[in-house]
């Protein structure tokens, strides 16, 4: 599963990380250019459940097989 995060839309709220069953292994909240954003740490842990896309209120996450 490939995880794409649109850093322009991402607010760095961490909802994706909280909703994901493997959250801390897949996602990390980091600061880039003075803005908090979610980044993908290790996509190999992704289960493909799409809980992150459901939780993301900014609609910043896309999962592709």
Topology of this protein?
Blueprint: E1 2-5, H1 15-19, H2 23-26, E2 27-32, E3 35-40, H3 51-55, E4 61-64
Antiparallel strand pairs: 1-4, 2-3
General description of the model:
The protein has 65 residues and is of the alpha+beta class. Helix content is 22%, strand content 31%. The chain is built from three helices and four strands, in the order βααββαβ. It has helices at residues 15-19, 23-26, 51-55; strands at residues 2-5, 27-32, 35-40, 61-64. The strands form two sheets. The protein has a two-stranded antiparallel ribbon. The radius of gyration is 10 Å and the shape is globular.
Counting helices, strands and paired strands, the structural category is alpha+beta
Q: What portion of residues belong to β-strands?
A: 25-35%
Helix content: 10-25%
Largest sheet: 2 strands, antiparallel
Low-confidence parts lasting 5 or more residues at pLDDT below 50? Answer: none
Radius of gyration, in angstroms, nearest whole number: 10 Å
What's the count of strands?
A: 4
Main sheet strand line-up: 1-4
Order of helices and strands: EHHEEHE
* Large-scale geometry: globular
């Amino acid at each position: 599963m490939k995880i794409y995060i649109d850093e322009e839309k991402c607010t760095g709220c961490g909802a994706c990380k909280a909703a994901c069953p493997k959250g801390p292994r897949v996602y990390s909240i980091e600061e880039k250019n003075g803005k908090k954003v979610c980044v993908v740490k290790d996509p190999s842990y992704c289960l493909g459940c799409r809980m992150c896309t459901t939780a993301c209120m900014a609609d910043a996450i896309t999962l592709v097989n």
